[in-house]
Amino acid sequence: MQILVTGGLGFIGSHTVVALAEQGFTPIIVDNLSNSELFIKERIERIINKKVVFYQADCNDYVAMEKIFQKHALQGVIHFAAYKAVGESITEPLKYYENNLFSLITLLKIMQNFSVQKLVFSSSCTVYGQAEKLPVDENNAVLPAFSPYGNTKQICEEILRDVIASQVLLQVISLRYFNPIGAHPSALIGELPRGVPNNLVPYITQTAIGKRPFLNVFGNDYPTPDGTCIRDYIHVCDLAEAHVKALEFLQKQNGSFIDFINVGTGTGNSVLEVIQTFEQVSGKPLSYQFAPRRSGDVTAIYADAQKAEKVLGWKAQRSLADALADAWRWEQAICKQTQELEKQT
Predict the structure, then answer these.
(1) What's the rounded mean pLDDT across residues 299-328?
(2) pLDDT digits (tens, 9 = 90+) for 254-285
(3) So what does this thing catalyse (predicted)?
(4) Are 35 and 10 in contact (CB under 8 A)?
């Protein structure tokens, strides 16, 4: 089965491509390389021991995307291609609305034209805003988003509901996932932020290896046990496997269908707990300082992931320590690669 993976060279996309290939699917990768690197394609091929099909294209480019659909008998789509930095979305909201909404709209139009009916949509726990109760289950209210990024995910889910309500034949699983971290255990692929990381774990690993002088912890006055934000940190390989499970579930659906499913561990960890766990698994003490709260951050959010287990047969298997150990191994591999390239030049 040929499955289109948009944003397939990105952090979550690349791990999902690996998981798809390992389960016998043929992933077709589309990525515009705006937040990913071309060498990840070769790394994916090393892991799965086969070539993958890749197109450098933008999901907003209707003509380019249509040509890809013409070339392949696609039987499903996993849509990752979106901008995802909460802070950046606050300073550049139009960039986020244009890309995140139009890419989905373009994709849905072409899917309809080519009778491709299965879609796994990359959503986010940010749709819940500052949740009224914890852990968050799928019946929690979708509250006003704390950022334009979160709002784009809410609007995309509304678009998907409306398309299905219009009698278009489409089966959709929208995966609302929490905080992906870690890397593939091979250390061949992982999170590769450009510039100063927006996410906690790459900031931690870059600080530990010496790329950053210290780690900023944004806010220590939240109403949590240690004053820092609480999140549900899920290993990216667990998350990738959830996408495959969602796709397999959709293969069994016939009529129009949409469902929303949390993907998380069910456990919340504070920023300081993540730092302490990293220090334990790496043996590296971290230099960090407290900074003012960051705009767009909610106090605490973590998943009730029972629905994913019941509907998809999926449950997170890897621990926070596992994820941090893999992230650290990946950071060391990237540092070594950079040093070798510098020697060659």
Answers:
(1) 97
(2) 899 999 999 999 999 999 999 999 999 999 99
(3) UDP-alpha-D-glucose = UDP-alpha-D-galactose
(4) yes
| Residue type at 52 in one-letter notation | V
Dump the DSSP string for 261-317: EEES-S--EEHHHHHHHHHHHH--PPPEEEEPPPTT--SB--B--HHIIIII-----
Residues contacting residue 131 through CB under 8 Å, at least 6 positions apart: 140, 143, 298, 300, 301
- What pTM does this model have? 0.96
For residue 85, the 8-state DSSP code is -
Q: What value does the mean pLDDT take over residues 295-299? A: 87
CA atoms of 200 and 37, how far apart (whole Å) = 21
Q: For residue range 69-107, what is the model confidence (pLDDT) as tens digits?
A: 999 999 999 999 999 988 899 999 999 999 999 999 999
Type of residue numbered 220: N
Quick one: tokens of 261?
């499913």
Tell me if residue 62 is catalytic.
Answer: no
d(CA 261, CA 166): 22
> Whose structure tokens read 């948009």?
6
Q: What is the pLDDT of residue 342?
A: 67
With both helix axes pointing from N to C terminus, report the angle between 200-209 and 271-282 in degrees, rounded to the nearest 10: 40
Q: Which of 96, 149, 222, 302 is catalytic?
A: 149
| DSSP summary character for residue 318 | -
Q: Which helix (H) or strand (E) holds 29?
A: strand 26-31
Average pLDDT value for the chain: 95
Alpha carbon distance 178, 94 (integer Å):
24
End-to-end Cα distance, the chain: 43
The CATH T-level fold of domain 2-344 is Rossmann fold (3.40.50)
Rounded distance between C-alpha atoms, residue 70 and residue 24, angstroms? 22
- C-alpha 286/C-alpha 47 separation (Å) is 31
Helices (H) and strands (E) in the chain, counts: 11, 13
Amino acid at 276: Q
Q: Which two tokens stand for residue 204?
A: 């931690």
Query: Is the preceding peptide bond at 135 cis, omega within 30 degrees of 0?
Result: yes
Nearest by Cα to 48 from 88, 86, 85, 14: 14
